Amino acid sequence: MRLGPAGLAAALALALCAPRGEAAVYVASQDGGALTEVGDASEPAPVAVGAGPAGLAAGPDGTLYLTHPDRRTITAVAPGGARVLRQLPFAGQPFGIAVSGDGAKLFVGDWQGGRLVRIDAASGAREAEAAVGPEPAGLVADAAGRLYVAERGGDSVAVVDGATMTRLARVPVGRAPFALGLSADGHRLYVGNVRSNDLTAIDTAALEALATRPAGRSPYGVAVHGERILVTNQESASVSVLDADLAITATIPVGRYPEGIAVEGARAYVANWFSDDVSVIDLAQMREVARRKVPGGPRAAVALPAGAGR
């Protein structure tokens, strides 16, 4: 069953240091109920994780976490995607997800409940929550422990202190924000606005929007690579590449209905929801160089943090 709110960026890009040279990237397939490693020459078989995974995030030790909105559960997968460790019940509809810097806590957006919930990563026990806007989608944490939440139904981004679970700010952006991408230094947050077809840059120190510029048709995934911002465009089957001034410098054709995107090294990996594959983009050549088949309905992509286990 496909979710009504299409796509997850995921938000959320990741990078894994692997001893074989090229690090792995992981893709969650909603229809196929699977997690697949892509990126290496020899890729293992997909791991069954249960029906309808949507959100995907990685902990500092390489543990992968997937949200299942319709099943109201969160699945934890061992580093390297080898096996399912546990499934945690969630009282709500879990969608976006982020992991604390020490890996002990999970921050989960409740799509139906309009709240951000902090839970224990091992037991799933609820610890605290904060009210956020309707339809919390993309979710990302910075090094200081602040959470940024795309409020799709509120045309805004909420900023929440992860320690106290208090809302620090609400930043207006474009229409129906979904995907978030944070710069490596944490100074800029980039927001893909699905219904206004644009990208907003937020100054994370001042907590205010700096600019909003066109990005493509239905931007659903955002990743940051140096000073370049990569945005997947669902309705035009492409990835837009923007510079630090938010000007489009390249448009790269990919598969059908691209959503999640992850960057590892000099390559980007794009989950193409409708064509059931992953586009591999060479960021030096600025073109697609390969396609990898995965189970049906790939939507979220992530690569493990540097130094994570495997």
From TrEMBL:
Keywords, comma-separated and alphabetical: Lyase, Signal
Gene: vgb_3
Keyword Nucleus assigned: no
Keyword Transport assigned: no
InterPro entries: Host-pathogen_enzymatic-act, N2O_reductase_N, WD40/YVTN_repeat-like_dom_sf, YVTN_b-propeller_repeat
Signal peptide start-end: 1-23
GO MF annotation terms: lyase activity
Protein known as: Virginiamycin B lyase
